[in-house]
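Subject: SESN2 protein structure
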Amino acid sequence: QDYTWEDHGFSLINRLYPDVGQLLDEKFQVVYNLTYNTIAMHCGVDTSMLRRAIWNYVHCVFGIRYDDYDYGEVNQLLERNLKIYIKTVACYPEKTTKHIYTQFWRHFKHSEKVHINLLLLEARMQAALLYAL
């Protein structure tokens, strides 16, 4: 059975540390929902599928998989260099280099790459909390 932040982690951490669950949940939601609705030069783009794919890929790297998510989306939306970058930053942050950073999404804005970093670091934190709880 799925052990999710929304269904289990949030309520358990609130019982252990009152109000911390709400603060963490707000932090996760702010980063997850952060968007300018642009991708490179394209404006008015719904980026929710991409953000969900990145979040779920990070969880997948740590062994957390959801039955109701189609992981085929991950392969369609995340290019190989982006997957390598995500896995390196999430699992081996000490091995992250500028070269790896510049290899993915070459034509994208720096702010979009920073958003990827925020997404994967918060997803990594949520995955660690799920294991701890």
